[in-house]
Write a structure and sequence with these properties.
six-stranded antiparallel sheet; globular; mainly beta; 0% helix; 485 residues
C-alpha cells in the first residue's frame, strides 16, 4: 500500500524503492525505453541496478523487471543505450538489430569504475552481459556515465564519459562498441565546485533557422549547483567527431540548464523517429543534498516531464541559449478547464479548491505591482509562490512555506532566475503534480523545477499582486488525469 500522499500522477516513479538517474533512453519498434538507477532491495542508494519501464507515448509507463542487476560485486551505474542498426557489435540474432547498453561498472571492493556492455535481442525484455567486459578500463576510481551515439559524418560510435574529480569530459571513438580509442578531452570549465557526472552531447536545431544546428555539451555537478547541492550546466559549440570546440566566450561562468533545485542527470532518447522535432530528454527530479531524506514511502525519487530541446537567441543579448519545452502530447491529459480573461488584479483572487495535479498557463501585463504571480497548494500556513519580482526582473519559486521541510536544512528556499518581460508581458506555463512544480517561462528559455511536500488539505489556488495592480491577460487551469495504462 502506498502510504505517501505525494505519489506523482504523471511523473515517472517506480512502485517501490530508490530511483535516481535516468539511463539508456532509447526508442525501438514503437516503444520508448526508460532505464534508471534503481535499488531493487530498498529506499537508499545501494545495490544499484538498471530498472526498466516502457511507454508508447512518454506519459503512460509499464514497469518491467530489472534489466541490469547488481552482480558479482559490480553495480550497474549510469550509461546509455543505442540501437546497433548495422550490427557493428555482432550481437544480433537473426535480422533484428540488437539494443546495446553501455554502462559504468562500479566495483564495490576494488573501488574503481570501468565501462561495460550488455545487449538485448528481444526488444529489451532480457539482457546479456558481454563476456568481454570491461570494454574500457584505464584503472581509475572515478570514470563514469558513458553517453554513446553514432556520429554519421565520421562513421563511428562516439562516447562521452567523465573523469569526475578532474572535471573533464573524455571522448572516445569506436567502430564496434567494443574497442575504444581516446579522441580528446574537454574541461575543466564552468562550475568545478563538485564532481562532474552524466555528460550529454547533443546536436540541437536553431529555432527560426531551418537546417542550422549547434552542439550542446551538458555535464552535471554533484555540488555547487545554483542553489547548493547538485545541478546541471551546459556549454555550446561544435563537434567534429573527435573534439568539442566551445563557442568563444566566458567558460568560467556556468550556464545552468534549470534554475530550480531539483533537476539532475538529464539524458535524451536515442534513435527517435524523424517525426520528432528535436531531441527529448528528462532528468532526475531531486537534489543530492536531501535525496535520501525525502518524506515519501514506499518509493524514493521521481523523474521530470519529458522536454523537447532546441536553441534560440536570448532577446537580452542575442546569444544562443537552451530552450526546453514540455511535450505537446501532455495536452492529452487535460480534463476540466477553468479560464479567466482580462482582469485587473489588486487583491488576491481565490479560485477555490483545486486538484493536486494541474497544468496552468498565465499571461500577466506589467502595471504598478512590485510583485505578482500564483500561489499554489494554499492551505493553513502553506503555499508555494511562483511569482515575478518587477524591481529585480526575476522570476521565482518560493517554497519556504510549501509544506514539511524539516527533513533537510537545505530544502526551504526561494529560487530565482532573471526574466526580461516581452512587450511588457510575463507568460508562465506550469505543471503541478502531487510533490513537484515545473515552471517554463520566456518561451522555454527559463525553466525552474522544484519539489514540494504540501499537506493534502492544502488545495487552494490564488492569483495575486502586491505593491500595486497587475493585469491578468489570461489564465487557463486544467486538471490532469492519467489512466493506469
Amino acid at each position: 500500500m502506498d502510504e505517501s500522499p505525494y505519489r506523482p500522477r504523471y511523473h515517472f516513479t517506480p512502485k517501490r524503492n530508490w530511483i535516481n538517474d535516468p539511463n539508456g533512453l532509447v526508442y525501438f519498434q514503437g516503444e520508448y525505453h526508460l532505464f534508471y538507477q534503481y535499488n531493487p532491495a530498498g529506499s537508499d542508494h545501494d545495490n544499484i541496478s538498471w530498472g526498466h519501464a516502457v511507454s508508447y507515448d512518454l506519459m503512460h509507463w509499464e514497469e518491467l523487471p530489472v534489466a541490469l542487476p547488481y552482480a558479482d560485486g559490480v553495480m550497474a551505474f549510469s550509461g546509455s543505450a543505442v540501437v546497433d542498426w548495422a550490427n557493428t557489435s555482432g550481437f544480433a540474432a537473426g535480422e533484428n538489430p540488437p539494443l546495446v547498453a553501455v554502462f559504468t561498472g562500479h566495483h564495490t571492493i576494488q573501488k574503481r569504475q570501468d565501462q561495460r556492455l550488455a545487449y538485448s535481442t528481444d526488444r529489451g525484455r532480457s539482457w546479456m552481459f558481454y563476456t568481454g567486459n570491461p570494454v574500457l578500463d584505464p584503472g581509475l576510481r572515478d570514470f563514469r556515465d558513458p553517453k554513446v551515439f553514432w556520429h554519421t559524418a565520421s562513421r563511428k560510435w562516439v562516447m562521452a564519459v567523465v573523469l569526475s574529480n578532474e572535471h573533464r569530459v573524455r571522448f572516445y571513438g569506436s567502430p564496434d562498441l567494443k574497442s575504444w580509442e581516446h579522441l580528446s578531452d574537454f574541461g575543466p570549465a564552468g562550475s568545478i565546485k563538485g564532481i562532474w557526472e552524466v555528460p550529454e552531447l547533443l546536436e540541437l536545431p536553431l529555432e527560426g533557422h531551418p537546417g542550422e544546428t549547434r552542439w550542446l555539451l551538458k555535464v552535471d555537478v554533484g555540488a555547487g549547483g545554483p542553489w547548493g547541492g547538485s545541478g546541471a550546466q551546459y556549454f555550446l559549440g561544435h563537434f567534429d567527431g573527435a573534439r568539442f570546440i566551445p563557442d568563444p566566450g566566458d567558460l568560467a561562468t556556468p550556464c545552468w540548464v534549470d534554475r530550480g533545485k531539483d533537476f539532475y542527470a538529464a539524458l535524451s532518447w536515442s534513435d527517435l523517429p524523424n517525426t520528432h522535432a528535436g531531441p527529448i530528454w528528462l532528468a532526475w527530479m531531486n537534489n543530492w543534498q536531501y535525496a535520501k531524506d525525502l518524506p515519501t514511502h514506499p518509493w524514493k525519487g521521481a523523474l521530470t516531464v519529458p522536454r523537447r530541446l532546441s536553441l534560440a537567441p536570448d532577446p537580452a543579448c542575442g546569444e544562443l541559449v537552451l530552450v526546453q519545452k514540455p511535450l505537446p502530447e501532455l495536452q492529452k491529459l487535460r480534463s476540466s478547464h477553468l479560464r479567466l480573461l482580462s482582469q485587473r488584479l489588486a487583491a488576491p483572487l481565490k479560485l477555490g479548491p483545486q486538484p493536486p495535479v494541474l497544468e496552468i498557463r498565465a499571461e500577466f501585463v506589467l502595471e504598478a505591482a512590485r510583485e505578482f504571480g500564483l500561489r499554489l497548494r494554499v492551505g493553513t500556513g502553506e503555499e508555494t509562490k511562483v511569482g515575478y519580482d518587477a524591481a529585480k526582473g526575476q522570476l521565482f519559486v518560493d517554497r519556504r512555506n510549501s509544506g514539511p521541510s524539516g527533513f533537510s536544512p537545505d530544502f526551504a528556499q526561494k529560487h530565482t532566475g532573471q526574466l526580461r518581460p516581452e512587450n511588457g508581458r510575463v507568460s508562465l506555463h506550469l505543471f503541478l503534480d502531487a510533490c513537484s512544480v515545473e515552471v517554463f517561462a520566456d518561451q522555454g528559455r527559463l525553466v525552474m523545477t522544484d519539489l514540494i511536500f504540501p499537506n493534502p488539505t492544502s488545495n487552494g489556488l490564488e492569483v495575486y499582486a502586491e505593491g500595486g495592480s497587475a493585469w491578468v491577460e489570461s489564465l487557463d487551469v486544467w486538471s490532469l488525469e492519467v489512466s493506469s495504462k
